[in-house]
Amino acid sequence: MENWKHIDAAFLRHPFSHPDDAKEMLYVVRAQGEFLFDQQGKQYIDAAASWWVNLFGHGHPALVRALARQSETLAHVMFSGITHTPAMELSQALVALKGCPAGAVFFSDNGSTAIEVAMKLAWHFQAQNQGDKACFWAFTGGYHGDTLGAMSAGERDVFVKPYTDLLAPVHFLEYNPELGYDLEVIRRRIQQEKPAAFLYEPLLQGAGGMRMQSAETLKPLLELLKQEGVVLIADEVFTGFGRTGTTLASEQLITPDILCMSKALTGGFMPLGATLMSPQIADATEQADRSKRFYHGHSYTANPLACALALETLKEWSSPTWIKNFNALVQSQQERALEWRQQFEDSQARSCGSVLAVDFPRKNSGYFYTDSIGRELYVQGLKAGILFRPLGNVLYSVPPLCIGSEAQERVHGFMDDMLKKYLHK
What we know:
The protein has 13 helices and 16 strands. It is an alpha/beta fold.
């Protein structure tokens, strides 16, 4: 396309972008496997899995076939008063996953909408059972999406501050992966603040900087909250599909009352959100009294194409081939993290499941993209033929499972070069 830079600048607005970003705008025309290709044919390794959605690789044949098959019979139909096979089969498959609440599923369009549904469900349930609930709780440093409810539970950073007056009431617990949590103090806070629900990213805060905590640290806190009648909402939009080592992070903790999924759910092909709920919460949505029923909806709720892709994703995920690839990736990431922790002490090199991350200590390092080093790493990555999505001073890799050994070595090699360059070791 001629004049594409002019057209893009004139007519498009990109997420989380600054006008300076246009200088290195990447025009992608094709993708296959772990690679993206620009309009000039240059190849880039997709080290960020296209914002964490691409699970097996771009253009994965099994998903292409699943999409084509479904498109021949039913592309879409409204889901109010109508049902269809892909939605029914997918709901059964999801509630059967280990760590999932086994009540019902509400489908939406993406991760943020899945969170919105979850927050409304929790409030709806508590209003029918414990009407004195006054707020939500969440961890500091979290990210749950950019719609108003989801944004309310995220870090109050530069992206959120302009909308402070519009946000839902959310109180925050300090994220303390090293020190843990004083349960007696938290118990008193519960009694004082009366939270309806606690929204958390289990084991791994993604956009907050790939911050990790152990199940041993988090589980006692979740158990206390559940004992005190606080609805647990697990945001597994990012952590699902192996990012913490198991299919869902909640497998390693306790089953939440509500669990949200999206991103890799369709293998990176189409948007789809799923909010799973316990039988008790599901029952609260189906009251005979119309004034007490749960009312929410999206035009593309349970889109058959997306549901068919998600079903195929679950099938592929459990196949021996991808289990083998996943285990190899986890081992590779672990080995590099250990090597870099020994070699670059200040890097805080760490891995969790398929995720590998390192820090670049900076005077002004902070949440999200507050330090220019992120931009520097991004640009240098493009020059090296690798697409990263740094988070402030954090550089990480979470590639598609199809990534070959040569491409993986290129990603690790680049990260190693950057550590040597910036940490002066």
